[in-house]
Design goal:
oxoglutarate dehydrogenase (succinyl-transferring), Rossmann fold, THDP-binding, Transketolase-like_Pyr-bd, elongated, thiamine pyrophosphate, 4 domains
């Protein structure tokens, strides 16, 4: 009877695998099964549909009874006994047990090398929770939806043992939160088929031990030779170096040719020497304060980047470790941007050749918001890098946190990655073979599915946060355990000795050999390719060591401007434009013919078109940048009759010439910090692309201040890293309140030194044209911060005749252009920057003040002393010089430019200020108050000097 039941019941017959998988899918995600089955399961349980986490606790008896009733129905000729029904019930219980281990097994995994915590109580992982008892252990059940054996059946004892070996040993896998069934099956097959245990050869095991010896050896050498100096030791997490070695070698085998690495301090020196092949003697020189002094500022040794080429079984692989400030995770988007630039250079759309690797600390990974912002970019079109391998050096302590309840609000430090359904492999750092296996699996998953994946190496921190700390002050019990720990290398060496893989003398010989290499200052990575150069490598030397110059030939022949204008105003005949956009395109066509002056949007377009036509790619990203926040750009046109993105959009700048360079425009996610960091990283890897980030409003750059301070402003003086990134920050006082007025010009002025960046505030369409072209035509790269206008985008006064595009260049200072002004009669020179110039001109006309000249400073830094002095000397009889600005007195450029202006004043001249009074807020929020302040500052610009006056 039992055999007959097994042959014909839909639980045990040919439908068994289908039913088992269907029910497992229901437990995981009710929405993933057909509606009729979902409704049926829901009704049987007499509870609402639940998600996967709750489904583990549903009663299974009604389901079993229903299956049994179906088996007894007229659809099946076989009559079943109560014993048969009991077996059927237990079969589904077994399926639920298997699902529970796949979901929750990591909670029971042996992950902590210090063994400080008891295993939590999880009833769902106990057979008794499913009414499975000892007498059931030797009953054979279907195992067709598992990969533990090639047979269709296993005893419950065998199934339970296989589950615990796979999911509860030194690897705890989390992947059941992934929606795609194929990806979940991939993980089940890869883990269950080997029960999460590698089968490494003796040579492989020796190689792992050698890397552990190198990791421990460097730290002990530095600890002995440079007592008390900060190095952020890797001791306790040495398996990480074995993981990096495996990642590089296996990556080479899988077709990876470049690896871009981002990591903070912990273990960084170890990676520099033992992974990238930095010469130990060079590192020692930094400890001895003998580092090269060719940088104006320099940086501490554990912030330094490095690059090298190493040999792998699949060929050479270029390694690049990004420079990193103390802001830990801020390097994440920078690495992603650098990887994207390298992909684009190779034409590697899927990311198979370029691999971003991010190394995290457990506390920072859980605690810093840029992690989430960067993860949010992972599968978007403009920022896709083919998946990132994340490695967490999880020392279970963070910085000084003494209680895990204060470290985070999630169970695991990696839980944030579940927002993008990234799988996580938690692994005990004291099992280096498991660490290497997890690294293999992570890389294989990334290469196949092109998605993010995490290896969480649970280890410990032997010393304090740095070598000057006393961690036992706040973690006494933890550090008692650590003091008793023999070290990962010792544990693994003893294991290999016990296995007969090596002798005790072999292990000692490895230690001595590494120490000898340290004493000699030799390479510890074999082999580092010293003479290899990839054809995709970028040569930065043409851009380095150049003296600052404002001059650049940026004008274009009239014929070329007209050709470009025609191309960017031509739309496919079957493409229906919105009436407002249709007028914009028609006006631009007229501008190209010289019939009307060129406005700001057309000036930008001509600059972009000319650059891509000349072979310079353009990459523009930011919130609303395709249309432009103020609807001035319209780089992306939308067909009013088609909604589908691929068919319903047209980008004229991608159709300028047959062999043009790419033009990429991306409406970014609602992020400033990660997106700006990404674009900085992109520009750092590609000097030949015009990379632009545009803030929706200038003040939104506040959210990316760390990127601005630590990378854009200081990257060159700290690390020697040139970068040509452009920031477009809408700035202007039009009464829109404190968050929509100021791009915080004063902050950029405060950061300006050592010719580290350009800060410009252009006021005409031709100026933005020449400025953008200058950024690429000049053979040096500096960040460019542009205070872009809002009201001037469509102001007639800010338009430019076509002639200004066919001659001239970007003017750092624009002198007095009014023909009615006689230089000898000028008694006052008002100096300003930005939109306020046009307000001052109108006020002068109103007052009929013919004795007042107005100068515009279009480049605030580096201050154009020569050009400014030349303009000022045109008015030898002027006694008053007034700086006028829209911003409050404690903001804007006033406190910075007053010294520059004073330096160029003539004897006897006095310098005064006209503008809003000092304020804690960038702007007032009331329109009437804004108007009163604007009126007052314009009056002040023409009034008698009072208050602070600086005399030459």
């Amino acid at each position: 009877m039992m055999q007959q039941y097994r042959s014909n019941s839909y639980l045990f017959g040919g439908n068994a695998p289908y039913v088992e998988e269907l029910y497992e899918q229901y437990l995981d995600n009710p929405g993933s099964v057909p509606d009729n089955w979902r409704a049926y399961f829901d009704a049987l349980q007499n509870v609402p549909a639940v998600d996967g986490s709750e489904a583990r606790d549903v009663p299974h008896a009604p389901v079993i009874e229903s299956f049994a009733q179906r088996a007894k129905s007229n659809a099946f000729a076989v009559k079943t006994s109560s014993a048969d029904l009991a077996v059927a019930r237990k079969q589904v219980h077994v399926q639920s047990l298997i699902a529970a281990y796949r979901f929750l097994g990591s909670r029971w995994a042996d992950l902590d090398p210090l063994k400080r915590h008891e295993r939590p109580r999880i009833p769902e992982l106990e057979p008794a929770f499913y009414d499975l008892v000892e007498s059931d252990m030797d009953i054979t059940f279907s195992a067709t939806n598992t990969y533990f054996t090639k047979a269709d059946q296993m005893t419950l004892r065998e199934i339970l043992q296989a589950l615990r070996e796979t999911y509860c040993a030194t690897i705890g896998a989390e992947f059941m939160h992934i929606t795609d069934p194929g990806e979940k099956r991939w993980w089940q097959e890869r883990l269950e088929s080997i029960r999460s245990k590698p089968a490494f050869t003796a040579e492989k095991k020796k190689a792992i031990l050698e890397r552990l010896t190198a990791a421990e050896g460097l730290e002990r050498y530095l600890h002995t030779k440079y007592v008390g100096q900060k190095r952020f030791s890797l001791e306790g997490g040495e398996s990480f170096i074995a993981a990096m070695d495996e990642l590089i070698k296996r990556g080479g085998e899988k077709g990876v040719q470049e690896i871009v690495i981002g990591m903070a301090h912990r273990g960084r020196l170890n990676v520099l020497v033992n992974t990238l092949g930095k010469m130990p003697k060079d590192l020692f020189a930094e400890f001895e304060h003998k580092a090269p002094e060719d940088l104006p500022a320099g940086d501490v040794k554990y912030h330094q980047g490095f690059s090298s080429d190493v040999s792998t079984p699949g060929g050479p692989v270029h390694l690049s470790l990004a420079f990193n400030p103390s802001h830990l995770e801020i390097v994440d988007p920078v690495v992603e941007g650098s990887a994207k630039a390298r992909m684009d250079r190779r034409g590697d759309k899927e990311g198979g050749q370029v691999l971003p690797v991010l190394v995290h600390g457990d506390a920072a990974f859980a605690g810093q918001g840029v992690v989430m912002e960067t993860l949010a970019l992972a599968q978007t079109r403009g920022y896709y890098t083919g998946g990132t391998v994340h490695i967490v050096i999880n020392n279970q302590i963070g910085f000084t946190t003494s209680d895990p309840r204060d470290a985070r609000s999630t169970l695991y430090c990696t839980d944030v990655v579940k927002m993008i359904e990234a799988p996580v492999l938690h692994v005990n750092g004291d099992d280096p073979e498991a660490v290497v296996l997890c690294t293999q699996l992570a890389l294989d998953y990334r290469q196949q599915f092109k998605k993010d994946v995490v290896v969480d190496i649970v280890c410990f921190r032997k010393l304090g946060h740095n070598e000057q700390d006393t961690p036992s002050l706040t973690q006494p019990l933890m550090y008692k355990k650590i003091a008793q720990h023999p070290g990962t290398r010792k544990l693994y060496a003893d294991k290999l000795v016990a296995q007969g893989v090596i002798s005790p003398d072999d292990a000692d010989a490895m230690v001595k050999a590494y120490r000898a290499a340290m004493d000699a200052g030799r390479h510890t990575v074999d082999p580092v390719l010293t003479n290899y150069k990839s054809k995709y490598a970028v040569d930065w030397t043409p851009f380095l060591g150049k003296k600052w110059t404002d001059a650049a030939d940026t004008a274009l022949p009239l014929a070329e401007i007209r050709r470009l204008s025609e191309r960017i105003t031509t739309v496919p005949s079957n493409f229906k434009l919105h009436p407002l956009v249709e007028k914009v395109i028609a006006d631009r066509a007229a501008m190209g013919r010289g019939e009307i002056n060129v406005d700001w949007g057309m000036g930008e377009h001509l600059a972009f078109a000319s650059l891509v036509a000349s072979g310079y790619p353009v990459r523009l990203s930011g919130e609303d940048c395709g249309r432009g926040t103020f609807s001035h750009r319209h780089a992306v046109l939308h067909d009013q009759n088609r909604e589908k993105w691929d068919e319903g959009t047209y980008i004229p700048l991608q159709n300028v010439a047959e062999n043009q360079a790419p033009f990429v425009v991306i409406d970014s996610i609602l992020s400033e910090e990660a997106v700006l960091g990404f674009e900085y990283g992109y520009a750092s890897a590609d000097p030949n692309t015009l990379v632009i980030w545009e803030a929706q409003f200038g003040d939104f750059a506040n959210g990316a201040q760390v990127v601005i301070d630590q990378f854009i402003a200081s990257g060159e003086v700290k690390w020697g890293r040139a970068n040509g990134l452009v920031l477009m920050l809408p700035h202007g006082y039009e009464g829109q309140g404190p968050e929509h007025s100021s791009a915080r010009l004063e902050r950029f002025m405060q950061l300006a030194a050592d010719n580290n960046m350009q800060i410009c505030q252009p006021t005409t369409a031709s100026q933005i044209f020449h400025l953008l072209r200058r950024q690429m035509v000049r053979m040096f790269r500096k960040p460019l911060v542009i205070m872009t206008p809002k009201s001037l985008l469509r102001a007639k006064d800010a338009t430019s005749p076509l002639a200004e595009f066919t001659k001239g260049e970007f003017r750092t200072v624009i002198g007095e252009l009014d023909a009615g002004i006689v230089a000898e009669k000028v008694k006052r020179v008002i100096v300003c920057s930005g939109k306020v110039y046009y307000d001052l001109v109108k006020k002068r006309e109103e007052k009929k003040a013919g004795d007042v000249a107005i100068l515009r400073v279009e480049q605030l830094y580096p201050f154009p002393h020569k050009a400014f002095a030349a303009e000022l000397k045109k008015f030898p009889n002027a006694t008053d010089i007034v700086w006028c600005q829209d911003e409050p007195q404690n903001q804007g450029a006033w406190f910075f430019v007053q010294h520059y202006i004073h330096e160029n004043m003539l004897e006897g001249q006095k310098l005064g200020y006209a503008g809003r009074p000092a304020s804690a807020s960038p702007a007032v929020g009331y329109a009437h108050l804004h108007q009163e302040q604007q009126k007052a500052l314009l009056e002040q610009a023409f009034a008698k000097l009072k208050g602070f006056v600086l005399t030459k």
